[in-house]
Amino acid sequence: MGIREALTKQIIFFDGAMGTMLQSRGLKVGEIPETYNILYPDIIREVHEKYVKAGADIITTNTFGANELKLKNTDYSVEEVITKAVEIAKEVKKTSNGKYVALDIGPIGQMLEPMGVLKFERAYEIFKRQVEAGVKAGCDLILIETISDLYEAKAAVLAAKENSNLPVFCTMTFGEDGRTFTGTDPLTMITLLEGLGVDALGVNCSLGPKELIPIVEKILEYSSIPVIIQANAGLPRVEDEKTIYDITPEEFAKHVKVMAQSGACILGGCCGTTDEYIKKVVENLKSLKPVKVNNKKFTAICSSSKTVILGKEVKVIGERINPTGKKKFKEALKSNNIDYILTEAINQVESGADILDVNVGLPEIDEKEMMIRTIKEVQSILNVPLQIDSSDSKVIEAAARIYNGKSIINSVNGKEQVIREIFPIAKKYGACIVGLTLDENGIPSKAEERVKIAEKIINTAEEYGIRKEDILIDCLVLTASAQQEEVMETIKAVRMVKEELGVSTVLGVSNVSFGLPKREILNQAFLSMTLSAGLDAPILNPGNKEVMDVIKAFKVLSNIDKEAKEYINTYSNIEGKESPRVNNDRDLKEIIIKGLKEDALQTTRELLRSKDSLAIVDEYLIPALDVVGKKYENGEIFLPQLIQSAETVKNSFVVIKENMNLEEEKQISKGKIILATVKGDIHDIGKNIVKVILENYGFDIIDLGKDVPIENIVETAKNENIKLVGLSALMTTTVKSMEDTIKSLRENNVQCKIFVGGAVLNQEYADMIKADYYAKDAQEAVGIARNLFKDTNE
Ligand code: B1M
């Protein structure tokens, strides 16, 4: 029986950890487990056999890290390692009565853009090579696991689906805050992965089974496909540099049973689990029938950290990223002024947009390139989902591919050719589609005719395998000035589409008032009429206070805004709350918080006319990063946004540095100092500031960078005969590394003084780790250096 069929009939058991088993069989720290397929195939075979004997249906190949980057420093190619791994697993399947061989694919080990430098298509190619090797070797399914970046999951799933016909399973790894390391929550994972057409999804690694329960509950609430759970054997803790897991096989199996009873149907183990754990799980669950998986039927789109569900309450689609009728916007597109577009995006979100429409079509520019750039840039600073708006199917396809999440495609209509071009794209990337109620004969004047076109779009979409929930219908607004009698037909059509066809509706509201004075009056009235008829997502300018007022009022009157909380919060007489702020003139602090990299250059230059360099650092850069740090800690923003703010500060600092070089003339060296951010810590903004200031006071700096190995610091200090070493650390976890560095400098008899700094430190810590001095900021660092080199320079 194929695994897809088996999933409908029985609970499927995965095996447990490979790493844990290999460690107990001699795998050393630093050894690459995948090389064991070639070097010690008997060990791998024995591990698989143990798991099958314990009752596992699926044998997971020993290929978790078998990608070209991780194997780069070994003697083996991806193909060799994977072929051998699949061969061993197939052998065991045959001899020990296993059922399926899963090609295991773990994360690449490098961050994708914008958090790292790895490009999406490069990640795709890396995964593709693994998939091709696994398919050729004859695996039965593909398991993509332990992924924490949704974008990486998308690259991997596309690689699996475009290069094989095998079932694809995908699991992600969550933290105690219920999100992955890059900010994805369970619902968002489901929204993307189901859209991409995986066969099963779920969670692995992360936490122990007990701690996973809230995450599992969320997954089961929303998933319409089989759910996989592979927990760790408890929460890991480190003892004598070894990772220990505390949960016994019995306890593990007990929790897993609860998950199976709630609906999870593919079960196994991750870190810390062994065949003992799997044996207990199988024994406990053998007689259990899987809970039937049903279609949860909701319309959703997402970015990497936010899902918006349509159809439950009004959601606003911001229409301002669109050059139509906007001279300034057109100029921005022509001059590649991305910050102008980003400012439009931010303003709309601040004014209440839930989704942003993105249209950058202009004959004079390369629309595809601009669309990709805009999507990437908007996604790196904002987490609202996007609607891809273009009349060119090539632009739509490129955008749907590169988009991090599940987008809306705007739009198709009832014309055969358009349908044929766009539906396959929507199906492949799992996007929602806006269907316009017009066809070869134009826009019908009667509501009934428009509904017929909507019905045709929905039915044809189903033929392409697109769920009805993924269709949004736009009944089209005609202007009251030219086609007055058809305004009510649109409203009637919205009601019919909602009630008779049961799909969500969108509508570009402001067209209705075109050509008439006081447009906002008509827009307001029309919006409230369409909302009453069941409009789910008006497309409008959220900066237009009047229409946003209607929406807020509608939410109260239709019992969506419970106890009128949102309404009161907006309109109670608290100063400054009257209307959402739309600001085109942001100060540097805000620019950094928003991550507007280009704006930072310009604004810093302007500020330097009235302020000196250090004042800008102290009054803008540091306070802005403190706000960002707090927001990150509170889960209001996630790693991608944190990185954008850091990059923005760097831009600002480039300008400050240029200015400092102008201010001070280069002097003779007053002494040579090493600066380094300690091992394990990649925060270097503070250290770089200290460096520039010290240089400006005439000191020669050997900057060893960030995440610097202890040996490197010791060697350089010795070889260069250094008298002063400055160490920076920003995390509680890396203070230990700072202490080790100091210890090593002392043990190696390096005759130097050491000063330390960084937000996590204070004088007490500095004394504790036996540093000679503590510098609160760059200016104090200068004081220390001047004092120390005083004799030399006098
Ligand atoms: Co991260 N980060 N970060 N981060 N980050 C912090 C430090 C954090 C407090 C945020 C938070 O949760 N509130 C938190 C640490 C928690 C803790 O341990 N207490 C944190 C975390 C958890 C992380 C990650 C683990 C997040 C993740 O991946 N899940 C990860 C760490 C990876 C690693 O290091 N292994 C991470 C990553 C990053 C980014 C890459 C996104 C980025 C750094 C980019 C870069 O530096 N190139 C970043 C940023 C920007 C921050 C915050 C927001 C800002 C840090 C900063 O640059 N401040 C920070 C929160 C915060 O501090 N408000 C945070 C401005 C800078 C000028 O100040 O460095 O203190 P500072 O320097 C001052 C003084 O301290 C002093 O002079 C400077 C000027 O006055 N000084 C010295 C500094 N070094 C000195 C050396 C000296 C003398 C003085 O002599 C040698």
List keywords for this structure.
single chain, 794 residues, alpha/beta, TIM Barrel, Methyltransferase, Methionine Synthase (B12-binding Domains), Chain A, domain 1, 4 domains, 8-stranded parallel β-sheet, 8-stranded parallel barrel, 25 strands, globular, binds CO-5-methoxybenzimidazolylcobamide
Q: How would you sum up this structure in a few lines?
A:
The chain is α/β, with parallel strands linked by helices. It contains 31 helices and 25 strands. Helix 15 runs parallel beside helix 16 (416-429), helix 24 (613-633) runs antiparallel to helix 25 (639-663) and helix 25 (639-663) runs parallel beside helix 26 (685-696).
Task: Please report the number of helical segments.
Answer: 31
| Helix fraction by DSSP (H/I, runs of at least 4) | 40-55%
Distance between the termini: 86 Å
Low-pLDDT windows of residues: 575-584
Please state the average pLDDT score.
Answer: 93
Number of extended strands: 25
The largest sheet, given as strand count, sense and whether it forms a barrel, is: 8 strands, parallel
Which strand order do you get reading across the main beta sheet?
1-10-7-6-5-4-3-2
Task: Name the structural class.
Answer: alpha/beta
CATH top level class name of the largest domain: Alpha Beta
Domain count: 4
Q: Report the C-alpha radius of gyration, rounded.
A: 30 Å
What proportion strand? 5-15%
CATH topology of the largest domain: TIM Barrel
Bound compounds, each kind once, are: CO-5-methoxybenzimidazolylcobamide
Coarse morphology:
globular
